[in-house]
């Protein structure tokens, strides 16, 4: 499959929204409006429908920054085993997707929309020109990528030293931090993740995730309502995550 940004959005689609959405991207918050306007003019936009999965090939990964303007998306790579994949991250709207635009990825990544999403592609040369006039932009990018590196190191440490229930608890905690909403019953995770999707995030198969989720539920830690996870006891979840 070709790279995600292969064509501009049809004329008139989000025409009045592009600058506003770009201005809400975390790394672009301090960029002057006139620079954002120019960036919108020189960028390409595309829509991903729910469950759309699009390949970012190695060349595209190195030469174009991909920004998620609206929606939520899962970034993953295919496993050597047919039908299996490894989730790299779940991306919220208003930020850079992965480390696109800065270095190639040897085997390519894929983006799957978890809800209808809008993606913007910025050529690396265009972004470098923007950096020349906005020095703080580089600091924001470095801080963002450093934070993601720390999170990735934590996930790798979980894979090396924790069993599936502890890894699942750690991942649910990360989801609470990124998209959890406080309710009377506890924290509700907005996205309806399947056990298979959770498995791709923690390096486990669906059956192992189902058993681990059943254990957490029997201990009164989590519940599943309308396909969404509710955390009913955050303290126990944290203790379980620590192993």
What oligomeric arrangement do these chains adopt?
single chain
Write down how many β-strands occur, each being a DSSP E stretch of 2 or more residues. 12
* Fourth CATH level, the homologous superfamily of the largest domain: Jelly Rolls
Measured by DSSP, the beta-strand proportion falls in: 25-35%
Gyration radius, in Å: 19 Å
Q: What is the mean predicted local confidence, pLDDT?
A: 86
Q: What distance lies between the first and last C-alpha atoms, to the nearest angstrom?
A: 41 Å
What is the C-level CATH assignment of the largest domain?
Mainly Beta
What is the correct CATH architecture of the largest domain?
Answer: Sandwich
| 3D shape | globular
Alpha-beta content class: alpha+beta
- Spatial strand order of the main sheet: 1-8-3-6
> What's the CATH topology name of the largest domain?
Jelly Rolls
- Largest sheet: number of strands, sense, barrel closure: 4 strands, antiparallel
| N-to-C order of helices and strands | HHEEHEEEEEEHHHEEHHEEH
By DSSP (H or I, 4+ residues per run), the number of helices equals: 9
Spans of at least 5 consecutive residues whose pLDDT stays below 50 are 1-13
Helix fraction by DSSP (H/I, runs of at least 4):
40-55%
Give the count of structural domains: 2
Description:
With 243 residues, the protein is α+β, with helices and mostly antiparallel strands. 43% of the residues lie in helices and 25% in strands. A hairpin with a 2-residue loop joins strand 11 (222-225) and strand 12 (228-231). Residues 1-13 have low confidence and may be disordered. It folds into two domains: 18-158, Sandwich (Jelly Rolls), CATH 2.60.120.10; 163-242, Orthogonal Bundle (Arc Repressor Mutant, subunit A). 30% of the residues are buried. The longest helix has 27 residues, at 135-161. It is globular. It has helices at 18-23, 33-42, 58-63, 124-133, 135-161, 164-179, 195-202, 206-218, 234-242, and strands at 44-48, 53-56, 64-70, 72-78, 85-92, 95-96, 109-113, 117-123, 180-183, 186-189, 222-225, 228-231.
């Amino acid at each position: 499959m070709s790279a995600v940004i292969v064509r501009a959005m049809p004329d008139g689609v989000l025409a009045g929204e592009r600058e506003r959405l770009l201005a809400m991207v975390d790394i672009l918050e301090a960029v002057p409006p006139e620079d954002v306007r120019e960036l919108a003019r020189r960028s390409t936009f595309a829509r991903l429908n729910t469950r759309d999965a699009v390949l970012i090939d190695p060349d595209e990964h190195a030469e174009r920054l991909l920004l998620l303007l609206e929606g939520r998306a899962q970034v993953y790579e295919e496993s050597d085993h047919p039908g299996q994949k490894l989730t790299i991250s779940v991306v919220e709207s208003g930020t850079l997707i992965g480390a696109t635009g800065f270095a190639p990825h040897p085997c390519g990544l894929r983006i799957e929309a978890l809800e209808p999403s809008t993606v913007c592609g910025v050529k690396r040369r265009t972004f470098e020109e923007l950096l020349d006039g906005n020095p703080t932009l580089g600091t924001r990018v470095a801080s963002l990528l450093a934070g993601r590196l720390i999170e990735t190191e934590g996930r790798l440490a979980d894979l090396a030293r924790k069993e599936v229930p502890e890894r699942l608890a750690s991942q649910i905690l990360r989801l609470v931090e990124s998209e959890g909403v406080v309710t009377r019953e506890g924290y509700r995770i907005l996205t309806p993740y399947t056990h298979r999707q959770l498995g791709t995030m923690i390096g486990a198969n669906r059956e192992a995730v189902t058993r681990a989720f059943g254990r957490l539920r029997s201990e009164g830690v989590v519940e599943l309502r309308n396909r969404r996870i509710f955390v009913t006891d955050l303290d126990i979840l944290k203790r379980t995550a620590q192993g």
